[in-house]
């Protein structure tokens, strides 16, 4: 009897131990699964770091830039866009249309040029003069073929642009000095957009900037600080400045 009672007690103890062990093992397995799921969820919700797009272009780009006055902008634009055959035949592609600030009948046209020789032939062709007369162009157009050596193509909210043309003693020396004044220009609401020079003469510079505050920018244009920078960069004379708003991009 005693032996039977002992065996029964031993069997009960073993059964209790077995139940406790199974319960503990199940708990550990469940915890492991939850931890892994949490890690996966955390990884899935962590945003990837995007690489900022490069908006700076330093590959030289030839352009034909034309300024002229029109009698009626809407009429001129319609005729300008109606026939692109002469331009494309000479490797010219529409880029930007601007209207002067404040004279909106003064127009700026920028065309990308595939071939400088063809671009030069285009501006001397009799057909161009006829087309301009048809579009209501008045006065003598100002035309120049330039090579853009630096462009910032980032989209910005500023609506006023300035194109300044001037001569320098040495283009590379001027650009080096110009780059040191970037923060000063930004502090005065001026952002660099395009640096270019005449296709045949690097000493003739064209500089396009964007203006976010005309009052600050105009004050800076007359400042001694800018005068000193021009002198240090070898600028000859006073720049010719043309202000405009971009009304169309192609």
Task: Please give the domain count.
Answer: 2
Q: Count of DSSP helices?
A: 9
**CATH class of the largest domain, anyone?**
Alpha Beta
**Which value, in Å, is the CA radius of gyration?**
35 Å
Number of β-strand runs: 9
- Main-sheet strand order equals 2-4-3-9-6-8-7-5
Euclidean distance between termini CA atoms? 105 Å
Strand content: 25-35%
The average pLDDT score comes to 86
CATH topology grouping of the largest domain: Alpha-Beta Plaits
Name the helicity range.
40-55%
Summarize the structure in words.
This protein is α+β, with helices and mostly antiparallel strands and 250 residues long. It has 2 domains: 1-50; 56-249, Alpha-Beta Plaits (2-Layer Sandwich). Helices cover 44% and strands 34% of the residues. It contains 9 helices and 9 strands. The chain has helices at residues 2-45, 73-82, 85-89, 116-124, 126-134, 171-180, 182-187, 214-221, 224-233, and strands spanning 56-57, 61-70, 92-100, 106-113, 137-152, 160-168, 190-198, 204-211, 235-249. An 8-stranded antiparallel beta barrel has the order 2-4-3-9-6-8-7-5. A hairpin with a 5-residue loop joins strand 7 and strand 8 (204-211). The model is unreliable at 1-33 and 35-44 (pLDDT under 50).
List keywords for this structure.
250 residues; alpha+beta; Alpha-Beta Plaits; 8-stranded antiparallel barrel; 9 helices; 9 strands; disordered N terminus
Indicate the topology.
Blueprint lengths: L1 H44 L10 E2 L3 E10 L2 H10 L2 H5 L2 E9 L5 E8 L2 H9 L1 H9 L2 E16 L7 E9 L2 H10 L1 H6 L2 E9 L5 E8 L2 H8 L2 H10 L1 E15 L1
Antiparallel strand pairs: 1-5, 2-4, 2-5, 3-4, 3-9, 5-7, 6-8, 6-9, 7-8
């Amino acid at each position: 009897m005693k032996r039977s009672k002992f065996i029964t007690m031993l069997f009960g103890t073993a059964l209790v131990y077995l139940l406790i062990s199974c319960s503990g093992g199940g708990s550990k397995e469940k915890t492991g699964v939850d931890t892994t799921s949490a890690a996966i969820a955390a990884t899935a919700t962590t945003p990837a770091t995007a690489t900022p797009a490069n908006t700076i272009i330093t590959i030289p780009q030839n352009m034909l830039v034309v300024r002229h006055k029109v009698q009626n902008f809407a009429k001129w634009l319609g005729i300008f866009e109606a026939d692109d055959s002469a331009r494309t035949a000479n490797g010219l592609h529409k880029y930007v249309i601007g209207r002067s600030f404040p004279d909106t009948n003064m127009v700026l046209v920028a065309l990308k040029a595939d071939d400088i020789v063809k671009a030069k032939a285009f501006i001397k062709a009799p057909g161009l003069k006829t087309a301009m007369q048809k579009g209501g162009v008045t006065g003598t157009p100002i035309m120049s073929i330039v090579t853009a050596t630096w462009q910032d193509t980032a989209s910005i909210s500023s609506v006023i642009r300035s194109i300044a043309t001037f001569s320098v003693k040495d283009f590379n020396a001027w650009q080096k000095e110009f780059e040191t004044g970037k923060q000063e220009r930004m502090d005065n609401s001026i952002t660099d957009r395009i640096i270019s020079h005449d296709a045949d003469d690097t000493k003739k510079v064209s500089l396009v900037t964007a203006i976010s505050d005309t009052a600050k920018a105009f004050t800076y244009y007359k400042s001694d600080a800018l005068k000193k920078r021009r002198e240090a960069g070898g600028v000859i004379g006073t720049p010719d400045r043309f202000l405009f708003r971009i009304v169309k991009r192609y």
